[in-house]
Specification:
alpha/beta, 10% strand, 8 strands, globular, single chain
């Protein structure tokens, strides 16, 4: 995530006119997604973040933004210029959404809507049109609640409303390249991709009044995966075929195999030992070998001496 420190990305975060020179307004949008439901990939052996149980939003939201931008162009009689973004530019989405009145930034760093909770995705349209602004959401409705702070397995949510991404399970299982620090592996539990814990314990996600945003299409995502062992046996083509159109492609096969080995190390099962041993023998990626060897060592089995994990 070092790209966030680059001068060009800092400028984009601080001034929308770097993204669109004639920018006068930013239209903030949200798309709801269901929590803890939506796909047969949910399995007692492992968990994935709720948004990842839908079709990859990078394939869905940009198309809707394109349609909306076209409608704005027609409505303005061809006077509008629009630049749409959803994770495609270094934009302070939550801050802009708070200023647009969509909600407040909670202690877990998620934007929370008083109507819809926090299980929604953000997107934005930068435009040259001067639109009347909505009132910002000034209230902090977290109060004295500390449930997200206390529930986080790695303790990455700080009391001062900052988050140490280096130990966040979502970061570790999605964005982190290479080895996951040894002391954090047990705390990942059975999360294969992402994490919902800090949102699931939030009271605002337990008393949703009504959807505030349109919903992410409930495209059935069922790669037919029944176990972590099945994932570990996949070659590159099988992995891409199974997870085509899924957010899980983001971390690539190496990342998913690494994560699967970590989860198996946290919950060892003798039926999976031969699969892990085969990974040791067949994989050339040093990161995969290291994490697989660590999983075997946790199971008190002999494994090849490939170095310290």
């Amino acid at each position: 995530m070092t790209y966030l420190d680059r001068p060009d990305t800092i400028k984009k975060r601080s001034d929308p006119r770097v993204i669109l020179t004639e920018c006068k307004s930013v239209i903030m949008l949200g798309m709801q997604y269901a929590q803890n439901i939506g796909s047969e990939i949910s399995n007692p052996d492992f968990q994935i973040a709720s948004y990842a149980r839908h079709e990859d939003y990078h394939l869905v939201i940009p198309q809707r933004l394109k349609i909306l931008s076209s409608s704005i162009f027609d409505f303005s009689s061809g006077q509008s210029t629009c630049v749409a973004s959803t994770d495609s530019a270094p934009v302070l989405e939550r801050d802009l959404a708070q200023r647009a009145g969509l909600g407040w930034i909670g202690k877990n760093s998620c934007l929370i809507s008083p109507l819809s909770g926090s299980f929604f995705l953000l997107a934005e349209i930068f435009t040259n049109l001067e639109l009347p602004p909505d009132e910002p959401f000034e209230a902090d409705r977290c109060g004295n609640c500390r449930r997200c702070i206390e529930a986080c397995p790695t303790g990455c949510i700080q009391s001062d409303r900052t988050l140490d991404a280096r130990s966040c399970i979502s970061y570790l299982t999605i964005e982190k390249k290479g080895d996951i620090p040894t002391h954090l592996r047990p705390k990942i539990g059975n999360w294969l991709f992402g994490c919902d814990i800090c949102q699931s314990v939030c009271p605002w996600n337990k008393k949703i009044l009504k959807p505030q945003f349109s919903g992410l299409p409930m495209t059935s995502f069922d790669p037919g995966v029944q176990s972590l062992a099945q994932i570990l046996k996949m070659d590159e083509n099988e992995f891409h075929n199974a997870f085509s159109g899924s957010p899980l492609l983001r971390t690539k096969r190496q990342g998913i195999i690494r994560n699967a080995a970590v989860v198996l190390g946290n919950f060892p099962d003798s039926k999976d030992y031969p699969v892990l041993e085969n990974i040791i023998a067949s994989e050339t990626d040093p990161g995969i070998q290291t994490h697989t060897a660590c999983a075997l060592k946790k199971s008190d089995l002999d494994s090849p001496d490939i170095g310290s994990s």
